[in-house]
Every structure is written in structure tokens, then in C-alpha cells.
């Protein structure tokens, strides 16, 4: 029980390192700010915590990216409209919609491919070596062997090897554009203690893994490494989004479960799979909102199309004797439905992201 409470205390301090005095953090982590960790302690922590990296190098899956451009709510609406247009032999309308779909797929694929390549290269941002203090000596070690509790030395041009609570900052500034989007270097101050709700971009007593020292020098305690760093949390979120979850079956104490529990788990799993296909429960908050908006607009478009079809069910076209009333009404219904859909929204968002 005592070990569990100690572990919980350490995990809490890792997440809130900016709220501690560096002396308090060093005591909780178990680090000597003057002599650093011993070699044996560093090896034990490495075996316990794992290597300081972002996991195995994964390749960009082109097929999966392409499928994601098609398997979303906005695209499904456009494909259905295209199918209806071709079904009633309205080749021009169907061709225009097909062109819009093609443009959306090309732009979406291009932008997401670039994003995947960028995220896939996060692990290469860190320097292969880091300057640490161990056994009272300043050593240069492989970055992947850095562990929580290591005392890190930072100088101009260095890439921060881990998330570090600063002990000393002499005219120190770091470039955190990768994490926070801040275009200017952030000046650091080791003596400040911040509140728990301070955002990552405002934590001036912390230097983040993969950020670059633009000027000055500093020294600090590594409190998070590998996937536990801020940049690691981005990789975790992306990998989690690519995984499909299967709902567990609620069982009784003896391990058995009723048929309704199997049905419940199956229904929840199918529901999540459909939600993932439509994009309402995966991706960024903006992507989720856009997918939900597309479904809402699709429902409104269907209602409008039904109203148009019902209102013109018995209409004739005396002024256009050569026209097919049913085809004209269908075209009008499709046009009414498509008028509710922002067909070029994906293209606009893609271009906006390129400009910003």
C-alpha cells in the first residue's frame, strides 16, 4: 500500500512539476541536484521506466490515409448525392459532384500525408546524445538512456532530451513552436512556481523534450521521458485514434455473463465502429464537430429532398413537354439537398491549414 501511494505521488508530481519548487521535486523523484544519479540507479530506472524514445519507427500507411478521406460523414453525403445523380442519368450534375469529391480527396490526402510524415518524424527531433550529471561527473550519454531524476545540462543549440524542471536558467530561452505554436522563443525562469492550471505554453520553469535552446544555458531535473513527455502525449493520442476499441463484456463475479451483456457489448462496439467510420468519435475536436455537422446537414438535406418530392408528386410540366417530370423533380430534390452541404469545406480548411 505504501509503495502504491508513493507511486501515485510521483505520477502526480510528474504531471504538475511546474507547481513544485525544484528542491521539492528533487526530493520526490529521489535525485541529487549536485552529483546526479549513480550509474546503478540510472540503470535500474531505465529498466523500470523504459527507453527515452517514442516507440518503434512506424511507416506512413498510404492506403489507410486514402480510406480516411472517403470514410467520413461529409464525403458519404457527397457520394450518395453523386450516386442519385448518376442513377437518374443526370450526367452533368453527377460529374460536377464527382469532381468536387475528387478535389476533396486529393487535398485531404495531401495534407494528412504531410501531417503523418511530420508526426512520424517526431522521434528524430531529439539529439542522439545528452549532457547529464551522474556520479558527480558531467557525462555525455545516449538520449534514449536518460531517465527521470537525471540532472540535465543545457546550452545554446542543444535539443532538450526530456521534460525538465529547471534548477538554473541563465538568460535561457527555448523554441517550443512544435508543441505550443509559439513563434518566438520562450524565456525561462527557474525560480517561479506556477499554479496547476497553467497551460504548457506558459510554464516558464519547464523545458520540454524536443524543444531547442536558442540562447543561454540551464540545468534541470528530468521528470518525464519517452511517451510520458508532452511531445510523447501527441504520439500517444495519434496512435490511440488509429486503434479500434472493443467493448468488454460485463460479467458476474463467477465470470459468467448473460446474453444481454453480449448483445450490449456487441451493440456498443458496432456503434463505436460506425462512429469511427463517420469520424464523430475520432480525430481532433474540430474534426469531430465537422463530422457531426455533416450528419446534421445530411438529415436536413434528406428532409428537404423528401418535401420537394412530395410537393411535386403530381405536378406536370406543361411548358416543358419534352422533359421527364420525375427526373426533373429528382434533380431539383438533389440540388435542394446539396445546397445544405458545404461541399468545399474540406478544401477551404486544407488551404487554411497550409496558409497558417
Explained architecture:
By secondary structure, the chain is of the alpha+beta class. Helix content is 49%, strand content 13%. Strands 1, 2, 3, 4, 5, 6 and 7 form a seven-stranded antiparallel beta sheet that branches. A hairpin with a 2-residue loop joins strand 1 and strand 2 (137-142). The radius of gyration is 28 Å and the shape is elongated. The protein starts with a helix and ends with a helix.
Q: Which descriptors would you attach to this protein?
A:
seven-stranded antiparallel beta sheet; 12 helices; elongated; alpha+beta; disordered N terminus; single chain; disordered C terminus; 356 residues
Calculate the terminal CA-CA distance, rounded to whole Å: 51 Å
Outline the biggest β-sheet: 7 strands, antiparallel
Strand content: 5-15%
Mean pLDDT: 77
Rg for CA atoms: 28 Å
Shape: elongated
Q: H/E order of the elements?
A: HHHHHHEEEEHEEEHHHHH
Helix tally equals 12
Low-confidence stretches: 1-9, 316-321, 352-356
Structural class: alpha+beta
* Proportion of residues in helical segments: 40-55%
The counted number of beta strands is 7
Compose a concise summary of this entry.
By secondary structure, this protein is α+β, with helices and mostly antiparallel strands. 49% of the residues lie in helices and 13% in strands. Strands 1, 2, 3, 4, 5, 6 and 7 form a seven-stranded antiparallel beta sheet that branches.
Set down the secondary structure blueprint:
Blueprint: H1 2-15, H2 22-29, H3 39-49, H4 62-70, H5 73-87, H6 91-120, E1 129-134, E2 137-142, E3 151-155, E4 163-175, H7 177-180, E5 186-187, E6 206-207, E7 212-224, H8 230-242, H9 259-278, H10 285-311, H11 325-338, H12 345-355
Antiparallel strand pairs: 1-2, 1-3, 3-7, 4-5, 4-6, 4-7
Helix pairs in contact: 4-6, 5-6, 5-11, 6-12, 10-11
Amino acid at each position: 500500500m505504501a509503495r502504491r501511494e508513493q507511486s501515485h505521488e510521483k505520477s502526480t508530481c510528474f504531471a504538475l512539476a511546474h507547481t513544485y519548487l525544484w528542491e521539492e521535486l528533487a526530493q520526490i523523484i529521489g535525485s541529487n541536484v549536485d552529483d546526479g544519479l549513480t550509474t546503478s540507479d540510472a540503470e535500474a530506472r531505465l529498466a523500470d521506466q523504459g527507453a527515452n524514445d517514442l516507440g518503434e519507427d512506424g511507416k506512413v500507411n498510404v492506403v489507410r490515409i486514402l480510406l480516411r478521406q472517403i470514410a467520413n460523414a461529409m464525403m458519404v453525403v457527397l457520394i450518395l448525392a453523386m450516386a442519385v445523380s448518376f442513377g437518374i442519368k443526370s450526367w452533368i450534375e453527377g460529374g460536377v459532384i464527382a469532381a468536387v469529391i475528387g478535389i476533396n480527396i486529393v487535398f485531404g490526402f495531401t495534407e494528412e500525408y504531410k501531417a503523418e510524415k511530420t508526426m512520424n518524424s517526431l522521434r528524430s527531433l531529439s539529439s542522439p546524445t545528452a549532457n547529464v550529471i551522474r556520479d558527480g561527473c558531467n557525462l555525455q550519454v545516449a538520449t534514449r538512456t536518460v531517465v527521470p531524476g537525471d540532472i540535465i545540462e543545457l546550452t545554446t543549440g542543444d535539443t532538450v532530451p526530456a521534460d525538465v524542471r529547471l534548477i538554473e536558467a541563465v538568460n535561457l530561452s527555448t523554441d517550443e513552436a512544435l508543441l505550443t505554436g509559439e513563434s518566438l522563443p520562450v524565456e525561462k525562469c527557474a525560480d517561479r512556481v506556477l499554479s496547476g492550471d497553467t497551460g504548457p505554453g506558459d510554464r516558464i520553469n519547464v523545458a520540454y523534450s524536443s524543444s531547442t535552446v536558442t540562447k543561454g544555458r540551464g540545468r534541470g531535473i528530468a521528470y518525464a521521458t519517452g511517451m510520458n513527455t508532452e511531445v510523447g502525449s501527441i504520439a500517444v493520442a495519434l496512435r490511440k485514434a488509429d486503434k479500434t476499441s472493443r467493448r468488454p463484456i460485463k460479467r458476474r463475479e463467477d465470470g459468467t455473463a448473460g446474453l444481454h451483456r453480449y448483445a450490449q457489448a456487441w451493440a456498443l462496439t458496432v456503434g463505436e465502429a460506425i462512429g469511427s467510420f463517420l469520424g464523430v468519435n475520432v480525430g481532433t475536436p474540430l474534426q469531430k464537430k465537422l463530422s457531426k455537422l455533416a450528419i446534421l446537414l445530411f438529415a436536413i438535406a434528406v428532409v428537404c429532398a423528401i418535401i420537394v418530392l412530395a410537393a411535386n408528386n403530381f405536378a406536370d410540366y406543361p411548358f416543358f413537354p419534352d422533359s421527364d417530370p420525375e427526373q426533373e423533380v429528382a434533380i431539383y430534390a438533389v440540388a435542394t439537398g446539396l445546397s445544405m452541404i458545404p461541399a468545399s469545406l474540406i478544401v477551404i480548411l486544407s488551404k487554411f491549414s497550409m496558409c497558417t
